Amino acid sequence: MTLTSEDLYLNRARFVMKYLGVWVPHPNETFAHKCYRIFMMTVQYLFLFFQIIYIVLVWGDLGAVSQASYLLFTQACLCLKITVFQINADVVKDLLERMNSDIFKPQNEDHERILKWHAARIKRLLLAFMISSQTTCGLWALKPLFDDAGSRNFPFDMWMPVRPEYSPQYELGYLFQLVTICISAYMYFGVDSVALSMVIFGCAQIDIIKDKILSIKTFEDKGQISKKLAKYLETNYNKLIECVKQHQGVVTFTRLVEDAYHTFLLFQLIGSVGLICMSALRILVVDWRSMQFASIVTYLSVMISQLFVSCWCGHELTATSDELNTVLYKCAWYDQDMKFKRALVFVMMRMSKPMVLRAGHYVTLSRQTFVTILRTSYSYFAVLNQTIKD
């Protein structure tokens, strides 16, 4: 295999995050690169700080607060994600080394095909997320030009140290908001790609384990007791032990992924409920022919799709690992020696428990969780909407 697993799964995320200066720092990181990384993160925190100031200034105005709250949550989530990523840089390095370790390397073309198939699936979903998020940023940038034609307004309602009535303050403020939000979207894509691609990499390794287990076949010449048969049985036993070691490696790997990213996954799940409610409220009061309406709809779809991808990855990990016990039973265990059968009993007991990915070490990420969040969001939205009408 010409590409390493890291290149196969994380090449896009690594390129984007290196370009933005927030990838895992090199041990011999230069002073200039360190300053660039600090600058890029400071800009994101500054953007969040301006939004908080605006929320404080307009507090009490439900319309203004709801209009600014979804962007506030998005930026707060981004700042948390990139901070967690930087704090856990050593853990990320460990995960990258594990991805390229010998135990996870493909041994034949079928294993390479499994790795590429899983990588292509998650890359397509994340690419669609990146394109849709940049489209939303473009609609936000066009809002002042269409909805507020003739006036000088910034794309986002937030406090700014410059005044739109004066030039070049207006141009500089406009450029700051547009460039910063586009960078935020790319950082979002980068951090999510690293976390979720690692989860799908774990799913690919489980499928490789299944392929190895099913390769345990019956010895063709059963009537001949020879050294060849003994060697064949010993090879099958070693193959089973290899699958056990690989499975333990996957369990440890996915546990490290959860430990590294569970914080912002929980924040994202909890905040999604309020975000969907606020965005839906804005859709009800905004003119459907306006650019703002289109931007809110696309933003809401992007956030829901991001939530779905996270829950889908967790569901895939659980569903894929849940099949291991059945696959073990499908191998030719009945034609193996007693040593193999005794080991198989313990292996089946250990692999009977499916792996799960949890946000905050508490909420299991699955399709059921995704549906529950949507239902909860709709319930809160219905209550808020009825309260406003009354």
Write a brief structural summary.
The chain is mainly alpha-helical and 390 residues long.
How would you portray this structure in words?
- It is a multi-pass membrane protein.
- With 390 residues, this protein is mainly α.
- Helix content is 76%, strand content 1%.
- It is built from 11 helices and 2 strands; from the N terminus they run H-H-H-H-H-H-H-H-H-H-E-E-H.
- It has a two-stranded antiparallel ribbon.
- Helix 3 (62-87) crosses helix 6 (169-214), helix 4 (89-99) packs across helix 7 (227-285) and helix 7 (227-285) packs parallel to helix 11.
Lay out the secondary structure:
Blueprint: H1 5-19, H2 31-57, H3 62-87, H4 89-99, H5 109-146, H6 169-214, H7 227-285, H8 291-322, H9 324-330, H10 338-351, E1 358-359, E2 363-364, H11 367-389
Antiparallel strand pairs: 1-2
Helix pairs in contact: 1-6, 2-3, 3-6, 3-7, 4-7, 5-6, 5-8, 6-7, 6-8, 6-9, 7-8, 7-10, 7-11, 8-11, 9-10
Question: Would you list the SSEs in sequence order as H and E?
Answer: HHHHHHHHHHEEH
How many strand units?
2
Strand content: under 5%
What is the count of helical runs?
Answer: 11
Q: How would you state the average pLDDT, rounded?
A: 87
